[in-house]
Design brief:
The chain is an alpha/beta fold. It has 7 helices and 7 strands. Strand 2 and strand 3 form a beta hairpin.
Length: about 200
Amino acid sequence: MDTWLVVGLGNPGPEYAGNRHNVGAMTALELAGRDASGGAGSASFKAHRVRARVAEVRLRVPGPKVVLAIPSSYMNESGGAVAGLMKYYDVPIDRVVVLHDELDIDAGLVRLKQGGGEGGHNGLRSVSRSLGSRDFLRVRLGIGRPPGRQDPADFVLKDFSKAERTEVLPFLLDGGADAVAALIDVGLLEAQQRFHAPR
């Protein structure tokens, strides 16, 4: 079955919605706005029994079904929703894409990979643990390192600055959504060549 599961990581609730840590969830919302199946534009998310909000879309027609998901649990417990949705929709691990913030990538840049470590990211750790594997695909959304001696844990739980919201965030969300579309259309290697080439 040609279905993809694309999960945007973040923390639930309005107080976290603008945090750097929630850029994965923001990118899932961006993708919902690109739904090509209904003709009306943005797809709406509905509550699912596995503690996630889900929207089923097609990024192009004809094209595979894409299940967009934002876990309703906190970041460090998000793996349960991913495992539940994988089982519910019968999606193999090589069609599971996790969207997440990445401190080790310059703000605004997007990188793609399959497998690898979690780099201290509690959401990725939870997903790896729940799936029993690290072999899912990742779209890594660069937020850069914190300035000065700011603790990275505090940095990711702060909202994007006013300047970032105009100069970085729109391009990051757009690039992240483009990267997911490329991953689905042309596969990991070609998508990496497109997004990792020097600009």
